[in-house]
Amino acid sequence: MHLVFKCAERWGIIELGKNPVSLVRVKNASKRLKRPRVLDVAEYFELLKHLDEPHRTMVLVAQCLGLRVSEILGLQWGDFSFENRSVLVQRSVVGGRVDDVKTEYSKDDVPLDDRLAEALLSWRAASFFPRDTDWVFANPVTGRPYHQESLRKRQLQRAAKLAGLGEDIGWHTFRHTYRSWLDETGAPMKVQQELMRHASIQTTMNVYGRAMTETKRRANSQVVGLVFGPNSQHSPENTGVATVQ
Description:
CATH superfamily: Intergrase catalytic core
Strand order of the largest sheet: 1-2-5
Number of helices: 10
Oligomer: single chain
Strand content: 5-15%
Structural class: mainly alpha
CATH architecture: Orthogonal Bundle
CATH topology: hpI Integrase, Chain A
Distance between the termini: 56 Å
Radius of gyration: 21 Å
Number of strands: 5
Helix content: 40-55%
Largest sheet: 3 strands, antiparallel
Order of helices and strands: HHHHEEEEEHHHHHH
């Protein structure tokens, strides 16, 4: 079809450089056919029990930060500022290929809760690749990031099956769940937009200023409190963060 349309351009049948299907509209093409899966806290903990490292820490990062799996695979240790409790999301890895993040708005610093920082530092101490320039979740054989589809099939879906959660669990499940749990904490919509790093939830939302860093940090810590539970060394009771009922 590409050759056909190029030929049509040369013959002057269609406008040069214009996408011939740009005006085509397919009814319901953008409509979501299936409601995204969202985990409750009990389901999440059950899934976590069936994951080994580094996949367990990957899922912790996914649920504590709401990152896309391509962004998780694109993390390097140098992206973390453990002193300032933040991490810069600045690249993605898809199919082993390093690329930019999905949108300009996706490139941003996100808050790093003490409990997640502790889990990450524990993994760093056990990792074969602990340098700042190393990938956080590298294949121990190649030193390169894992392939997300292989992780989903061999690790995530295996754990989901063992946990009795069915077969509709994917990496994006945690991003949907993160958004749902933010709602449960009562986080303002503007804060949710910034934590999700969406370009816009509603156009009118963009006329307001950026959410305060501490407000974002508190909202994020509410979700992390659900992830780690009340028995963590850095439980909400010990950090002054209210527990979501």
